[in-house]
Amino acid sequence: SDALLIGKVETMDASDGHENALSAKKSGKTSLLDSGEDFEVLDEEDIDDDLPPLEDAGGGDGNVADNTEKKNAEEESEASAQMDEWLDVLGNDQLKKKVLEPGKGRASRPQKGQDVEINLKTQLMDGTLVEEQNNLSFTLGDGDVIQALDLTVQLMEMGEKALIHTDAKYAYGARGSLEPEVPPNAQLSLEVELVKATDAPDVELMPPSDRIALAIRKRERGNVHYQRADYAFAVNSYSIALQITESNSKVDISPEEEEELLDVKVKCLNNMAASQLKLDHYDAALKSCVSALAHQPDNIKALFRMGKVLALQGEYTEAIQTLRKALKLEPSNKTIHAELSKLVKKHSEQRGAEQAMYKKMLGNPSKGSTTKSRAKSSWGLSWKWLFGATAVAIGGVALSVVIAARN
């Protein structure tokens, strides 16, 4: 959403920019909608349809000079106002930018995906110095630095010096940082100078050693995000590293270098699966594990995470088989052993519950047979009494007939 907002800033037309610039000047604040253009848009009623030809306008060079001076004065006034005012970058008062020294114009702003170089001074809001870094290089928009820099450097002009105030949300968050040393939930003041912006090199033409080093840097940045619990940013960094490892090489690459790139790729897939698990993206995590195992079938980390994903999806039998394979490769691994024991117990309890449910649904066979035998014996007893009573009745009738005949 932040990138989309910045994109909207770049595509605002001149009229919207002018109107917002006027309202901003009245309110004493600058907004993202200030286009900074050096011409005015007139209302329709102010436009004369019958303008005289240029040669008949009169004034000649004098009017041109006056207009130029007026234009320069307006630009200087606007630049001065911009330097005295804060720009609320995201509109939530948590990330603000103020120009200390103007740059070379809007056309010199860097683009997302370019490699930029800045001089940076980081301080706490009470003035405590955190660190100073000269010629700090990073790819704009890749998440190589804190989000405050990724968002605001896109709005800087070449040669510009700016002061940036950021909430902890766009810096080091609730956890803070050990390197550099930043307390938890710390707001920061950043002094930034944009020194250079160049197009990123073509990965396919990079020497293999440089390509490997770049992929490792992106993966390590993902690890930093993971440690801060910024799992979505971690996935982004790992994805960029994967793209670097998977790009075709248009230069000669040795088998050893190919093997090293493959190793970086598998590590990225494993780390991505761990991040996706934290985000509850089970299907994506399973896909990452399968990809890692396609390259290294006996990779223990991939097998372990795949077992966890399958268990979370309710595939207990496959999960147990996967974890047993991992434990067989590394019998002393206590983490795998504990996870497997827990899963076997859970699976056993589930099977017991399912069997009890089935018995309840189908009824108890032994109880049914007992009831049936009791019913059978009861019917047998009833028939015996019935036959006995019938015989007695028949006998009585026969005796009565015999007595009647004798009489």
Automatic annotation (TrEMBL):
TPR repeats lie at residues 300-333. It holds the Pfam family FKBP_C. One of its GO terms (cellular component) is cytosol. GO terms for biological process: negative regulation of apoptotic process. Residues 35-53 have a biased composition (Acidic residues). It is an enzyme of class 5 (isomerase). The keyword Isomerase applies. Residues 1-81 are annotated as: Disordered. PROSITE patterns: FKBP_PPIASE, TPR, TPR_REGION. PANTHER family: PEPTIDYL-PROLYL CIS-TRANS ISOMERASE FKBP8, PEPTIDYLPROLYL ISOMERASE. This is peptidylprolyl isomerase. The lineage of its organism: Eukaryota, Metazoa, Chordata, Craniata, Vertebrata.
